[in-house]
Amino acid sequence: MKKLLVMLMTMAGVLTVMADDYPYLTFETSDGNKQSVSTTALTLEISGDKLLVNNGTQSFTLTDLQKMYFSANDATAIESIDNGQRTMDEGVWYTIDGRMLSGKPTTKGIYVNNGRKVIIK
User: What residue segments make up the domains of the chain, in order of their start?
Assistant: First the structure.
């Protein structure tokens, strides 16, 4: 019965989506772009080769649409990742506890230069 109802609503061209547990519907296109929309009062309409979302405020070409799924949050992509590694300035010296020095140390101790521990005797 549900399949028949969905099929009839789709044929009519308008489908209202209700997803109580999922606040977003995410669309993924064939080029990998993702876009999430709130499921609150969400409407979908098929018009020719387009899928119109929320009364046409957003649209997707049906042949370009790869996936459509419900999601718990609107985060759809990680743009960049910082691995926490920083580049070291060549020639800059640091004490073992990370304090930068103004030049090559003259007193005995363990220092860091170019990312390596150096012992000055």
Answer: 2-71, 88-121
